[in-house]
Design a protein that fits this description.
2 domains, binds glycylglycylglycine, two-stranded antiparallel ribbon, globular, ten-stranded mixed sheet, alpha/beta, Isopropylmalate Dehydrogenase
């Protein structure tokens, strides 16, 4: 019997609404398995905590999380607190402290889901973005001199280390090797930079890409500038297989990939500590979504798919596949889907539907 010790941080906005459904699905997995149980340790951190304490999480928050098997995360963001405070106070410290350098973001056009792009059939879009997750443009390196004066000077520095760059590019090739069985015959890694303009960090990235690619001669490679990649994600998304990019570029590309595959409400994300020395974190790509918070209509399927990624990481591939299959069936049947996909069901009705399908319904 395996008992997984999970840290659950629902966070802000729609976070608590979608996390409730993720937990519901995990409880159903445990109920249907003679060998899996979960212990949920819930932490009420985020913007409400910030308003009370001046911090997004306690000073020893990272120590508290260190011993868990995985972290299930909702969202951060608040309409009345600057985004750089919420993001740098909770989500980014976890990614850095737990060395979650590899972020995996799959985008698949499911049967039953309509792409806003013309003539795209189910399965036509099937790509995975591998996002560098601890450095690049998100490194908190810089400063502000003479604020509010005519001499105001602001420096924001991108960080590209050999360790981090090699790690993410190798992770992309390894992912491509692993997923080759079911990727519609595609076998390609695309690296996205802007090395014509960013002539230090991104030229370095391009060089490392060529070095690592030489270890995988069986895989086709391609290097695109980010502006070209954005165009191609819209006009030829079926050409992509595995895409590797820096922290910021991959984040932007993830939103395009999510929207061309039907909804940001379906996009899941795994923040992986590849060495397994620290917990990995699983979350939806979407944030707090203030516009729909409290309405009970947020799509929980991104979080539920993140739960499937977490189960796979924990060494429960069968349970992971059963959750993925249940998400897929929920979408194919289209009986219980949220308004972002053209339905009228609530967040909790979709969670219940996934549980019903999991139970053999
Ligand atoms: N569930 C993900 C979330 O809350 N995202 C908020 C956000 O702003 N994330 C920025 C990022 O991941 O780069």
């Amino acid at each position: 019997m395996a008992e997984y010790n999970l840290a659950v941080i629902a966070g802000d906005g729609v976070g608590p609404e979608v996390i409730a459904e993720g937990k519901k699905v995990l409880e159903a997995v445990a109920a249907g398995s003679p060998t899996i149980t979960f212990k949920f340790n819930e932490y009420p951190w985020g913007s409400a905590y910030y308003r009370e304490t001046g911090r997004m999480m306690p000073e020893d928050g990272l120590e508290t999380l260190e011993s868990c098997d995985a972290i299930l995360f909702g969202a951060v963001g608040d309409p009345n607190i600057p985004d750089h405070i919420t993001l740098h106070g909770l989500l980014l410290p976890m990614r850095r402290a737990f060395d979650q350098g590899v972020c995996i973001r799959p985008s698949y056009l499911f049967p039953g889901v309509t792409s806003p792009l013309a003539n795209k059939k189910a399965g036509d879009i099937d790509l995975v973005i591998i996002r560098e997750n601890t450095e690049g443009e998100y490194a908190p390196v810089g400063g502000r001199l003479y604020p509010g004066t005519p001499h105001e000077t602001v420096i924001q520095t991108n960080i590209f280390t050999r360790r981090g760059t090699e790690r993410i590019i190798r992770a992309a090739f390894e992912y491509c090797v692993r997923r080759n069985g079911n990727n519609n015959g595609k076998r390609k890694v695309t690296s996205v930079t802007k090395s014509n303009a960013q002539s230090f960090g991104m030229v370095f990235w391009d060089e490392v890409f060529v070095e690592v690619a030489a270890e995988y001669p069986q895989i086709e490679t391609e290097s695109l500038l980010v502006d070209r990649a954005c165009m191609d994600f819209v006009r030829w998304p079926e050409d992509f297989d595995v895409v590797v990019a820096s922290n910021l570029f991959a984040d932007i590309l993830s939103d395009i990939a999510a929207v061309v595959t039907g909804s940001l409400g379906l996009a899941a994300s795994a923040n992986i500590n590849t060495e397994r020395e620290h917990p990995s974190m699983f979350e939806s790509v979407h944030g707090a979504a203030f516009d729909i918070t409290g309405k009970g209509i947020a799509n929980p399927l991104a979080t539920i798919s993140a739960v499937a990624m977490m189960l796979d990481h924990l060494g429960e591939p069968e349970a992971s596949k059963s959750v993925d299959d249940a998400v897929s069936r929920c979408l194919i049947e289209r009986k219980v889907i949220t308004p972002d996909l053209g339905g009228q069901s609530s967040t909790s009705q979709v969670g219940d539907e996934v549980v019903r399908i999991l139970g053999g319904g």
